[in-house]
Design brief:
With 170 residues, this protein is an alpha+beta fold. Helices cover 39% and strands 15% of the residues. The chain is flat.
Length: 170
């Protein structure tokens, strides 16, 4: 089976044609690996097909994402893409402060899915997800905090960064 067959099936099943541009965009994302921005995809495709325009790449990425052939992760306000692999599903934790993305295995959402089914009778359909929050380093960083304190629970903060309580001397 060639790598184009699953792409062709997904496109034809949704009423779209398999075009060279669509194959090139998906191949570029796969070749670049990891989470890649549209500018990176465009530069890679232009190495073989210099006449492709950015609008074609954006439209193609949007279509491939809707067809679940690409996953999107937003890092620092920039959409980045990776080839979707249903056999190796994973989710992302993205830090709102530094933009770092960490992949986590499916067990976290699988546990949530099972619990929702058991307790609420709700069948959660999540093929890919991205959660935002703060990574371990940024939780301890007081420089970006509105209160001057890190976001980590008090027990994890260094003593100088713990808020004063009524029991402590001021």
């Amino acid at each position: 089976m060639t790598s184009e067959q699953p792409i062709a099936r997904a496109l034809h099943g949704a009423g779209h044609r398999l075009t060279p541009q669509r194959v090139m965009v998906l191949s570029a994302v796969g070749a670049l690996g990891g989470h890649v921005a549209v500018d990176d995809i465009l530069a890679r495709v232009r190495q073989e097909y210099p006449f492709i325009d950015v609008a074609t790449v954006y439209r193609t990425v949007g279509l491939l994402k809707r067809l679940h052939l690409l996953n999107e992760v937003v890092q620092g306000g920039v959409s980045r893409y990776e080839v979707a692999d249903p056999e190796r599903r994973h989710d992302h934790l993205v830090c709102e402060h530094c933009g770092k993305a960490v992949q986590v295995g499916p067990r976290f959402l699988d546990e949530l899915r099972e619990r929702l089914m058991a307790e609420a009778g709700f069948d959660l359909h999540v093929e890919h997800s991205s959660f935002s929050g703060l990574c371990a380093e940024c939780r301890l960083d007081t420089a970006h905090s509105h209160s001057g304190h890190g976001h980590a629970p008090e027990a994890e903060r260094p003593p100088a960064h713990r808020p004063h309580t009524h029991q402590e001397a001021v």
